[in-house]
Amino acid sequence: MYTSRRQKAVQCEVCSATGAEGETKQTILIIRKFMQTEKAKALNDFFNGAVNLLLSTVYEGVLVPVGDVNNISDLTETNFEKYYADFEEELKFNILEYKEFDVAFKYMSHYLNQIHNWDGFKEDFIDKVFETNLYVNELIKAKQFIEKYKRKISNLYGSENFKGQLPYFVHDLLNPSQHKEPEPEPEFVPDPNFNFEYMMSEIKTQKLTTNQALDFISNRQKDFLQWQIVNDTINQYDYSGNVTVKRHPLTNLHYQHFMKLCGVEIDRLNSRLVNEKNELTLAAIAKNKLVIHAPSAETSPYKWNSTDTDFLELFAALYQNESIVRADGKPLTRKEMMEYFQSILGLNIKDIDGKLNKAGNRNDNTPFLYTLAQKFRYYVDEKEKKLRSRK
């Protein structure tokens, strides 16, 4: 809460006797005796009175008497500027008189520290103004002027650890020959490379694949972050010198959604990449027909040691029984199966259908399969004999 004039007067008396903010009694007396201080005190009193008038009117519901209505009407920007300008002229005089930054800083800290440390109006102040329905326009305007000149004082003053603009003020005043008007900064021209629509047009023009587009956008993001670190990062410090906020004004103005849009596009491209890989896999399976490199009878490492008819008898039985199928689940044609077996057995059977018909017209149309069955029974019998002989 802002301190009243009476409370401030008591505090000043205490400061005179015991010292304030590390100042000795002697330092304060020297400042009061030799420095011009009336304007700083006048600014403090005017500011004090303005704040107390607003607080008493809004929170305590004090109806300003008719004769004192002009007190509120006095709280104009013209009057605020007059008191502040008078103080600034007095500050300049003291700087030129003593030529020491510490003296100027102590002068401000002694007379304007209370303004600088004031926390400002409560959040409900405006609501209370409308509730009182009294001098609404004058009170809101006065609040804005108070906050404006409070900021000017705080920006100039700073604190013990952070001296604000006062060092530059002192330096420019004591070194007028070294003071140069800053050259106007060139107008900022946004880089089209960091415009999302322009980047997407580049990808389209270059006809990049999905993988290439992903690399392109990722590299552009890294370029943008490097530019931001070098050209568009403003650190905001507290009075202890710690970084509290990193601001990017150019980014917020010209490239506000660039990184977010890039992130969404990368997600889209990653999904597309998964779909493309799946489509390529399915296409490869669809085109993956069984390829048989059929060796000739002379080059095959294996040889069918029976008749062509015996082979056809066995082949027909295997095919009809579907004992052999494709591993990929696709239908296995008789021709495909025949070509495969002929290739690994070095066969080259002519007139397959004719030989199959003749075999089927025999009285005993499966003699080879019957022989195979007998051979298997003989194998089983011999195996059993060997097992009994070992017991």
How would you describe this protein?
The protein folds into three domains: 5-178, no CATH class; 192-287, no CATH class; 308-389, no CATH class. A hairpin with a 5-residue loop joins β1 (234-237) and β2 (243-247). The chain contains 17 helices and two strands. A two-stranded antiparallel sheet has the order 1-2. The radius of gyration is 49 Å and the shape is rod-shaped. α3 packs parallel to α6 (101-117), α5 packs parallel to α8 and α11 runs antiparallel to α13. The chain is 65% helix and 2% strand. The N and C termini lie far apart (110 Å). Mean pLDDT is 80; it is low at 1-24, 64-70 and 290-294. It is mostly helical.
Q: What is the strand and helix layout of this fold?
A:
Blueprint: H1 5-18, H2 25-34, H3 38-59, H4 69-73, H5 77-98, H6 101-117, H7 125-132, H8 136-157, H9 166-174, H10 196-205, H11 210-231, E1 234-237, E2 243-247, H12 249-254, H13 258-287, H14 308-320, H15 334-345, H16 352-360, H17 367-389
Antiparallel strand pairs: 1-2
Helix pairs in contact: 3-5, 3-6, 3-8, 5-6, 5-8, 6-8, 11-13, 14-16
Written as H for each helix and E for each strand, in order along the chain, the element string is HHHHHHHHHHHEEHHHHHH
Oligomeric form: single chain
- Low-pLDDT sequence parts: 1-24, 64-70, 290-294
Q: Roughly what percent helix?
A: 55-70%
The count of helical stretches stands at: 17
Number of domains: 3
Structural class computed from helices and strand pairing: mainly alpha
Strand elements, count? 2
Global mean pLDDT: 80
In whole angstroms, the N-to-C terminal distance is 110 Å
Give the C-alpha Rg. Answer: 49 Å
Report the principal-axis shape: rod-shaped
- Main β-sheet: number of strands, strand sense, barrel status? 2 strands, antiparallel
Strand content: under 5%
Strand order of the largest sheet: 1-2
